[in-house]
Amino acid sequence: MSIQQNAPLHVRLAEEFMRRISDGTWPPGSQLPSEAVLCKEFGTSRGPIRQALASLRAEGAVTGGRGRPPMVRPAVPSQSFSTFNSFTEWAVGIGKTPGQRTLEVALRDARPEVSEALDLEAGEKVVELLRVRYLDGVPAMIERTCFILEVGRLLFDFDTDSGSIFAFLKGQGVDLYSARHTIDAVAANEEDAELLEQAEGIPLLRERRVTRSASGMAIEYSEDCYLPELTNFTIDNTAERRAALVRVHTEEPKGTHD
């Protein structure tokens, strides 16, 4: 097990159970061994086994409980907030092959919502990027990103079909320090549907992001739309470490995406 051996038994058991799910020993949709079988295998009582299974249920890896046998949840790759800024890093981390197809890299005047997000004056130039992102060759996300000119101009010397833009920019010394994410649901418009090879109007999971430097300067504004059956997002909280999660009421009509 990768976890420290002096950790509580139920924590070590949860790590081992998760390893078996990750490596396919317990494949998606399969029923886990009974508590009696697990108790015999690990030489323990039911208490630590139940605590470990409860931990996996809390993480969404296992379903069941209240008299129903535990089952491995059917696989939907989940993106943690810890890798939210890098689609490539996340895809590799879940054992998928990331891909991308660039449709546009352009210098143009910032749209009003982009100017507001990036703290720019009206009419200032930004570099806009439009890409389709893939998981194992399947369209998974549409990426619409705007960078301030100082940073975005670097992309004209980069093959944006070659991989992670964030990795490239970090290698150029760009300070990509923090990001604020807003997630909602929208309906695919005609362009989105065509790019994702789906029917118009299907629900998409939209993530809007503003990335800043350590000094607080806005660097990037992105609007990414994911197919929900190919990905979801997770955020982990503990009693000691609580991630900032804000629920915002919006007056924007539901099911629109311009």
TrEMBL record:
Domain HTH gntR-type: 7-75
Key word Transcription present: yes
InterPro entries named among the record's database cross-references: Bact_HTH_transcr_reg (IPR050679), Chorismate_lyase_/UTRA_dom_sf (IPR028978), Tscrpt_reg_HTH_GntR (IPR000524), UTRA (IPR011663), WH-like_DNA-bd_sf (IPR036388), WH_DNA-bd_sf (IPR036390)
Gene Ontology MF: a single term: DNA-binding transcription factor activity
Pfam families per the UniProt record, alphabetical: GntR, UTRA
Keywords: DNA-binding, Transcription, Transcription regulation
Matching CDD domains: WHTH_GntR
Domain of life the protein comes from: Bacteria
PANTHER family: MANNOSYL-D-GLYCERATE TRANSPORT/METABOLISM SYSTEM REPRESSOR MNGR-RELATED
Name of the protein in its database record: GntR family transcriptional regulator
Biological source species: Arthrobacter terricola
